[in-house]
Amino acid sequence: MRFDDAAAVLFDLDGVLTPTAAVHMRAWELMFRQYFAEHEIAPPYTDADYFAHVDGRPRYDGVRATLVSRGVHLAEGAPSDPPGTQTVCGLGNTKNALVNQLLAAEGVEPYPGSVRVVDALNRRGVPMAVVSSSRNTAAVLEAAGLGGRFPVVVDGAVAAAEHLAGKPAPDTFLRAAERLGVPPDRAAVVEDAVSGVAAGRAGGFGLVVGVDRGAGPTALMEAGADVVVRDLGELA
């Protein structure tokens, strides 16, 4: 299926519509580098860990996967654990607090090429959704001037409330397609994360577009992308 033939388009947020993936990446690095140093965990956290264990996954899954990669098994804790708590949830909440601090200090601008694509789809009346593991999706969309552009948003908060498995499972994308009233094989998924691309492929979507913001075209294609672009403006 060609992008122009999609009956609906489901976008990831961070790294696809907005450059907040870079903000998340920095927050993960700050949190893990400090934690690893304090607990003498080796080897040090690197960008490779982000792409291998964190990118696109629900927050606590990213914490857990990264720790397991170092042979560390931490108590799960609870989502209500305050930042600084030495649990999986506490570390995830520390990272989230850092994201909010960075966003407040620096703001966020959407990718111009992505805005052109969203505007073109809107003019054609193509229904769109945002599917993100982040629980900050609504705030980021508003900050980026994209609030109200998407009739369906399935984010980390929705996934938790509806007990939907996170990426690389296809559940959140399938739920968004269901809410738009479009069968998966008639819809396109747009993702920059390997786990998100894998979710789109596992869901049987008609087209999976990988946006290379650092994962690499080979990794995105191997995960199931039908096409890889450097910027969504290439599709406009």
Number of helices: 10
Strand content: 5-15%
Mean of residue pLDDT values: 95
Secondary structure category: alpha/beta
Look up the CATH topology of the largest domain. Answer: Rossmann fold
CATH-defined superfamily of the largest domain: HAD superfamily/HAD-like
Helix content: 40-55%
Domains (count) = 2
How is the quaternary structure best described?
single chain
Shape: globular
Largest sheet: spatial strand order: 3-2-1-4-5-6
Topology:
Blueprint: E1 8-11, H1 20-38, H2 47-54, H3 59-68, H4 88-106, H5 112-124, E2 128-131, H6 137-143, E3 152-154, H7 156-161, H8 171-180, E4 187-191, H9 194-202, E5 207-211, H10 217-223, E6 227-229
Parallel strand pairs: 1-2, 1-4, 2-3, 4-5, 5-6
Describe this structure in words.
Its EC number is 5.4.2.6. GO terms for molecular function: beta-phosphoglucomutase activity; metal ion binding. It catalyses: beta-D-glucose 1-phosphate = beta-D-glucose 6-phosphate. Its cofactor is Mg(2+). This is Beta-phosphoglucomutase. The protein is of the alpha/beta class. The protein folds into 2 domains: 3-19 and 108-235, HAD superfamily/HAD-like (Rossmann fold, 3-Layer(aba) Sandwich); 22-106, DNA polymerase, domain 1 (Orthogonal Bundle). It is 46% helix and 10% strand. It contains 10 helices and 6 strands. Strands 3-2-1-4-5-6 form a 6-stranded parallel β-sheet, with helices on both faces. α3 crosses α4 (88-106). It is globular, with a radius of gyration of 17 Å. The two termini are 16 Å apart. The mean pLDDT is 95.
Summarize it.
One of its GO terms (molecular function) is beta-phosphoglucomutase activity. This protein is α/β, with parallel strands linked by helices and 236 residues long.
